[in-house]
Amino acid sequence: MRTRTFYRWLVCLHPPAFRLRFEEELLWIFDESSASGAGPLFYDAAISLLRQWLLRSGMWKWALGGIAALLPLLIGFGSFMFQRPMQP
Questions:
Q1: Using CA atoms, how far apart are residues 45 and 41, in angstroms rounded to an integer?
Q2: Mean pLDDT calculated for residue range 71-87
């Protein structure tokens, strides 16, 4: 019962449009196949969750923008990290 609750929680974290379309089907598949092992279903739900929020929602643009904004800082200030200390 605890595994179904955790799986339902993973499904509930998906975007609303995805949940409306696939929630009942995903829970039915989990109920039918959980006796043989639920590990692959948890993996699939977690990957689906990442895919739905990052790729479908456009959040990847924000993540890429953040990385692009940090890149010049790392190049400019990061070059000082690998210099030898000055000798007196």
A1: 6
A2: 71
